[in-house]
Amino acid sequence: MPAPASPPESPAPPAIVRLEAVSKRFGDVAALEAVSLDVATGQTMALLGPSGCGKTTCLRLMMGLVRPDDGRVSFRGAPLPPEGAALRAARARMGYVVQDGGLFPHLTALDNVRLKARTLGRMGWTAARMGARIAELAALVQLPEATLARYPTELSGGQKQRVALMRALMLDPELLFLDEPLGALDPHTARTILDVVRRRARTLVVISQE
Where are the beta strands (DSSP E) in 10-137? Predict the structure, then answer.
């Protein structure tokens, strides 16, 4: 009696971001040389390595913040646009948290959180909807809403990182990049927030030191 046929393998999830033989130099320094990788939809990927090995450059290439000298960066199966409205539309589907938070010092924490929604195409949000989303995110990152009235110079390192996470999650991104974002938080809080972020972000790329 013939053995039962094996069930067909599920197709691999498509790559939401792809680097193909990408190289980037800054002056005489080679940050990346012919790097290829796929970030699959729904995947959590960690980029590990010592300081200066090119992790942040790799992430910034994926977002179109810098352009490769050689190779190609694709987003959702198409080359990442070099500039203009098409690039802004792609970035609206991404969230990015840099290591120090990257908050604008002349804006309150609340205005920092709302900035991406106001500049990347969500101008139709009502005040009520914006307020509900901000309250949801403040609870998510365990930040008292009263803190949002302060300026970045009035915040601790951990509070800045929480505000930066709120800003990155404001538009419910398909793809979230975290560049060592939780270093100023105690280990228990960092694990709690990262677990919640993993559940909320459909695809996650995290940079960490070895």
Answer: 15-26, 29-40, 44-48, 70-75, 78-79, 94-97
- State phi, psi for 74 to the nearest 5 degrees: -120, 145
Domain count, the chain: 1
**Tell me: the pLDDT tens digits for 15-34?**
899 999 999 999 999 999 99
Q: Give a yes or no: residue 7 inside a domain.
A: no
Q: What is the average pLDDT score of the chain?
A: 84
Residue with tokens 């695809």: 203
Give the 3-state secondary structure of residue 208: strand
Task: Identify the pLDDT of residue 26.
Answer: 93
Q: What domain range includes position 133?
A: 15-208
**Residue range 84-101: mean pLDDT, rounded:** 85
CATH number at residue 31: 3.40.50.300
pTM: 0.81
Listed residue (19, 61, 14) closest to 202, CA to CA: 14
Name the residue among 84, 8, 14 with its Cα closest to residue 43.
14
* Cβ atoms of 59 and 179 closer than 8 Å: yes
